[in-house]
C-alpha cells in the first residue's frame, strides 16, 4: 500500500481543499432540486399516459431521478478549472518535477475533483429526498429506502462509477495537451454524457432498438447501473456482472489515457520552453 | 565522475511563423511556414559536487532551457547529459526524487493549502521518512524563519515569504543538488540578502551543489565562484569572476577624494590621458576609469598622489553588469 501513499495523499489534500466551497454546493443543491422536480413531473405524466407494462415501475423511476440529482457532479461532464489554468499557463510541465507517475498523479487529483463537490451536494439531497419529502406527506415522490443488498450493491457500483468517471475526466484533461483549451471538450462532454448515462431519461425507457447499443457503451456504468441496483431493478444476482462491466470499461479508458499521455508528454515538453 | 556532465547539448524548437496581413493568414491555414529556433546549439560543461555555479545570459539565451533539461522536464534534441549518472528526461522519476528545483517565477506549493500542509503533502509525494522529514523541516523553518508562516495559505504570503517557503519545499527531501531559476526576481533588498545567506549556508555547510540562474549580478558577485555565461545557445565564458572581467578588458576604477576641490581640466592635463577611459569629477571626488593593462594601478596612484593632495583613495572593479553587457554586445545579443 505504501507505493500508493503519494497518490492517496494527493487525493486527500485536494479533497479537503475542495470541501471549502459551501456556497457553490448550496447553489448546486437548489438547482438540482428544481431539475429533479421537473424530471419527476415529466416522467410521472408519461407514466400516467402510458399503456401496458413499463421496464421500470414508478418507485424505481423516482429512485433513479433523485440519485441522479444527488450525484450529478460525479458525472464526467466538465473539466477541472485549476487544471485548465495550468495547461494554458504552461505550469503543467512542472508536474513532471514530482517523482510521481504523471498519469497516477493526475488521476489522484481528478478523483478528488470528481468526488469532493459531489459529497457536499449529495448529502443534503439525500436528506431532503429520503427524509424530508415523506415528512411533508409526499412519500410517493420520496427516495425509497433501499434493501440491505440493494444498498451494498449500490455502494460497490457507485465506487466503480467514480473510478470510471475519473478515468473519463482524466482523458478530457489529457486532450487539452493538444487543444490547449478546455472549451471544446467542456461543451461536447455534457451532451452525450448526460444522455448516454441515463441522466436525462433512464436508459430502460429508451426504444427497444437502441437497447443493444445502450447496454454496451461505457457511460451506462455512471448512472444506470448503480441506480438500478439501488432500487432492485437490476437484481442483486446480476450486480457483480454489471459492476465488472463498469470496471472493465474503466481499465480500458485508463489504458487509453496512459497511451495518449505518453504521446502528449512529448508535446507538453515542447511547449514547455 | 562529475556530478553533472553535459556534452554537446542541443535544443531546437519548431515554431510556426505567421505571415503578415489577411491574405497571409489565409495562406497560413494551408501552408504553415515553420522556423527552427536553436535555443541551445551545442552546450558543454561539467559541474562537480559542492560547486556553486552562476549561470547567466540575456533573455532568450537558453538559460531556462538548460535548467529545464537538467531538471528532466524538457527533452533535448541532441547531445547527452547525466546528473549523478542518470539521464534526467529518461530516468525522470528517480532523478526528480534526488534534486530540488525552485523557479522564481512560479510557486510549486499548493496555492490554497497552508504552508505546513504543503510540506506534509510533499513528504508523502517524495516518500520522506518521518524522522528525516522532521529534521529537515525544523532546520528549514529555523534557517528561513518560517515559523510564523506555517499556518498561512500560500496565496496570502508576500513574494519574499513565498520564495522562502518555496526554497524550504524544494529541500525537504534533502536533495544534494539544487537548481535555482531566478530565485531573487522581484524580491526586496532584505529578502535578497536573506536568500543569498541561505544559499551560501546550504552550499558551504551542507555541501549542496547549486546551479543558479539570475539577472541580478549582485547575486553572482555575492555567491558564485564559477560563472557560466550563455549567449545564442552557446557557452561564451566558463570560469571565475576574474576571468569574466579579463575577457572584456581589464577595466578598473580609481576613486579619489582630494583635499581641495579639483577641476576636470587640471586633472586630465596632469594625467595626460595614458590608459584613461573616463574621468568624472563631482566636488572633491574624482572617478577615474582606466585600463589596468595600459597603466598599472600602482603607477596611476603614484602619479595622482604626487601631484594632488589626496585625502583618500581606492580602486574598484566596475560593476559586473557593465562587464556582462559588454560581453553581450560583443556577441551581438541582448536587448540593451
Structure characterization notes:
The complex is a heterodimer of chains A (273) and B (336). Chain A has one domain (18-271). The mean pLDDT of chain A is 88. The radius of gyration of chain A is 20 Å and the shape is globular. By secondary structure, chain A is mainly α. Chain A has helices spanning 5-18, 22-49, 58-70, 81-89, 102-135, 148-179, 183-197, 211-216, 224-231, 236-271. In chain A, α2 runs antiparallel to α3 and α2 (22-49) crosses α5. With 336 residues, chain B is α/β, with parallel strands linked by helices. Chain B folds into 2 domains: 4-245, P-loop containing nucleotide triphosphate hydrolases (Rossmann fold), CATH 3.40.50; 250-330, YebC, transcriptional regulation domain (Alpha-Beta Plaits), CATH 3.30.70.980. Helix content of chain B is 38%, strand content 29%. Chain B contains 12 helices and 13 strands. In chain B, the strands form 3 sheets. Chain B has a 6-stranded mixed beta sheet with strand order 5-6-7-3-8-9, sandwiched between helices. Chain B has a 4-stranded antiparallel beta sheet with strand order 11-12-10-13, with helices on one face. The mean pLDDT of chain B is 85. At the A-B interface, α1 and α10 of A face β1, α2, α3 and α4 of B.
